[in-house]
Write a structure and sequence with these properties.
Layout: E1 4-11, E2 16-28, E3 35-46, H1 52-77, H2 84-96, H3 100-108, H4 113-130, H5 141-153, E4 155-156, E5 159-163, H6 166-185, H7 212-219, H8 226-238, H9 242-246, E6 253-256, E7 259-265, E8 272-277, H10 279-283, H11 303-315, H12 326-337, H13 342-349, H14 355-372
Antiparallel strand pairs: 1-2, 2-3, 4-5, 6-7, 7-8
């Protein structure tokens, strides 16, 4: 029985109609192997176009849908007319018309925690730069270089007076390159252009941290969220990242004759780690519960969380700009200041390379220089 393919429309948001193909009878999806009646084309038309541009966009989208409809009908009813090479060319031609911005958005949805927030910001900058539309066929080195230059001069979202920091631009461009690499592995791109792109150089940032006396001030200062206070101070006493603190369960905590320790899989590196913790750090864990219970239940990364931290810090009369990640910096800096050797600090932080830990040694050296310059004589 011949397969009939029809272009249909489905109402979505903002007065738009999503275009999709309707197969009768149902087909086996070549990619998933699952029976289906529908294939959404990730294209839409405006139900009531208001101007010439919108009418032209509708015309182009409907023309594209008709081309795909005809090719699908031939593919399933007359497969003999296509050689394997022609099928491959046809596949990439169709993919080329798909929207990379929407593909990037689908990658964002797979991220969690602070990584999700970072990917989301990268997506929003890509959307702003492209107007939300960028076909795979238009992805080339020239476009990527233009996006790179845009990030290096873009304003911060929500603050039109300040530019993105160079390290933020680096982070967002890295996400963009990762998405290009993933598109290549998903066979949406014929070649991995991400490997040929010029990176954005990292700028050595000034890392904010707290002194031991300031940590004591925070301990003695009320915070509107008890779980944020406990988690922050625990991070300052262990060096754990937010992503590892948030997922800790009681099954990760162990006690022996030598004291308390944590065994966990570091989320960033996926490496299994063993970390001894002090009795002070253990005191912030609270009352033990079932093994699979989260220790810091209710802890959630958000803009609100860092606002609560800043308010808490201000009420302790500390003028530094502190976010959750600064507590990890605090742990590393205090350890080195108190004489712990760099290699040991590196292992406690779960760094793969000693180079990643050396930044804290530079911070401590600068502190020493500031201290020596405080003693002056009138010569």
């Amino acid at each position: 029985m011949a397969i009939k393919v029809t272009v249909r429309q489905k109402a979505i948001t903002k007065g738009r109609m999503s275009l999709y193909l309707d197969f009768y009878p149902e087909i086996i999806d070549p990619q998933t192997g699952v029976k289906t009646r529908r294939e959404f084309l990730k294209r839409y038309i405006i139900e009531k176009p208001k101007n010439t541009l919108e009418r032209e966009q509708n015309k182009e989208s409907l023309s594209f849908a008709e081309q795909i409809r005809a090719s699908r009908e031939n593919y399933f009813n007359k497969p003999e007319i296509y050689s394997e090479q022609e099928k491959e060319i046809l596949k990439y031609k169709e993919i080329g018309e798909r929207n990379f911005v929407e593909y990037f958005k689908s990658l964002v949805a797979k991220r969690k925690g602070s990584n999700y927030e970072n990917w989301l910001s990268a997506y929003k900058h890509l959307r702003d730069f492209t107007g939300g539309i960028l076909t795979f066929s238009n992805l080339n080195e020239s476009f990527c270089d233009s996006f790179r230059e845009y990030l290096l001069s873009a304003k911060r979202r929500g603050n039109s007076k300040l530019l993105l920091s160079q390290n933020s631009a680096l982070s967002y461009y890295t996400k963009f390159r990762t998405a290009l690499n993933q598109a290549f592995r998903d066979r949406f791109l014929k070649e991995d252009i991400s490997k040929r792109l010029r990176p954005i150089k990292e700028k050595e940032a000034q890392r904010q941290f707290l002194e031991l006396e300031e940590l004591q001030l925070l301990l003695n200062t009320p915070c509107e969220s008890e779980v944020i206070k406990r988690a922050s101070l625990f991070s300052a006493l262990t060096g754990l990242r937010y992503s590892d603190v948030e997922k800790l369960t009681w099954s990760n905590i162990h006690q022996s004759e030598r004291g308390y320790s944590i065994e966990y899989v570091q989320k960033k590196t996926n490496d299994k780690e063993y970390l001894p913790i002090s009795p002070s750090a253990y005191s912030f864990l609270g009352v033990p519960k079932q093994d699979n219970s989260k220790i810091f239940e209710g802890l959630k990364y958000s803009v609100t969380m860092n606002k609560i931290i800043r308010k808490w810090v201000n009420e302790a009369n500390i003028t530094k700009h502190i976010t959750f990640h600064c507590f990890r910096h605090t742990f590393a800096t205090i350890q080195i200041s108190e004489g712990t050797e760099l290699y040991t600090v590196s292992k406690l932080l779960g760094h793969k390379s000693l180079r990643n830990t050396q930044i804290y040694a530079k911070v401590v050296d600068e502190k020493k220089r500031e201290a020596t310059n405080k003693i002056k004589l009138d010569l």
